[in-house]
Design a protein that fits this description.
78% helix, mainly alpha
């Protein structure tokens, strides 16, 4: 993460003079714009390119973009202390990426975005069940409200169940489980080590399937795949830098704008008009997620465990 800090220091002086929360908000909004653009690109190439191929290309590109960072910390990377945890994280990452991209392609963008936001709620639940962290009744109630919002959106009763909404939910659960595994693994290894071995496992899992289902992209599709991979990396950098710079409690409400952006793009480009069920479910999910993020930002009176950066 040192390169992130170094890059932040090279930002324009006028930007660095802004209050930290304001600067972080700007980075967060920029990341939302980038991720919205990536969703549009995924839909554009999704008509011809299998999702498994998108995941493969994105992971290969991530290795290329991250190569200088991996080279810098290679002595630590080549000797992981908890390789099993990083391998499990790779499996979870495959599930999250496959389900997330499939949901963006096949269901309305507003629905996919709202359901994906339940990741924070599932992560809270997993933290209590797996990490044995203290999760108060208010957070459990927030998680329950978020799940109720998902149930409203995917309509499991009455014959209206959307399979790809369940896929989006599976992606959120996979992402949340992956967050817990990162937390466990970071107790022993650097972030770069976690990312590297996660990427290795992702490639080991997806390469055979990508080869079986490979569709040679046209020049236009190849360009779009490259741009997708590039802007995904940029978006991750912006999002991570925002979280490192600002308070989570100040940034959490901005997730409402992310949903508005995706809904607006879905309406303008694809004629997706949010239904009443989408609006009602999204309100519950966003309210629950915002409360959870704010609660997670409150200072913990217990000293944090020491761990590699």
């Amino acid at each position: 993460m040192t390169l992130l800090v170094d890059s932040a220091r090279r930002m324009p002086a006028a930007f660095r003079r802004l209050p930290p929360d304001l600067a972080a908000s700007g980075l967060m909004l920029a990341s939302f714009l980038v991720f919205t653009a990536m969703a549009v690109l995924a839909r554009t190439v999704g008509d011809t390119i299998p999702v498994i191929e998108m995941v493969f290309v994105r992971q290969v590109a991530a290795f290329v973009f991250m190569a200088p960072l991996y080279a810098r910390f290679w002595p630590a990377i080549r000797a992981p202390r908890r390789l099993g945890l990083h391998a499990a994280r790779g499996v979870a990452a495959v599930g999250a990426m496959m389900c997330g991209l499939s949901a963006v392609i096949w269901i309305p963008l507003a629905d996919a975005t709202a359901i994906q936001m339940t990741e924070a709620l599932f992560a809270t639940a997993f933290a209590g069940l797996i990490l044995r962290e203290r999760v108060g009744w208010r957070r459990w109630l927030a998680a329950a409200a978020g799940i109720a919002g998902v149930a409203i959106m995917i309509r499991p009763f009455g014959g209206g169940l959307d399979v790809y909404a369940l896929v989006a939910l599976a992606g959120a659960i996979s992402g949340a489980f992956g967050m817990i595994l990162v937390r466990l693994g970071s107790e022993y290894d650097r972030t770069e080590t976690v990312m590297f071995w996660q990427g290795v496992v992702v490639l080991v899992l997806v390469t055979p399937l990508a080869a079986i289902h490979w569709v040679t992209p046209s020049l236009d599709d190849a360009v779009l795949l490259f741009v997708m991979s590039l802007i995904f990396t940029i978006g991750q950098w912006l999002f991570t830098a925002a979280l490192r710079m600002g308070d989570t409690s100040a940034l959490a409400p901005l997730h409402y704008l992310r949903l508005i952006m995706m809904a607006a793009v879905g309406w303008f480009l694809y004629g997706e008009v949010p239904t009443l069920a989408t609006a009602a479910g999204a309100v519950l999910i966003l309210g629950a997620a915002t409360y959870t993020l704010r609660a997670n930002a409150r200072p913990d009176r217990r000293p944090p465990p020491s761990r590699p950066i």
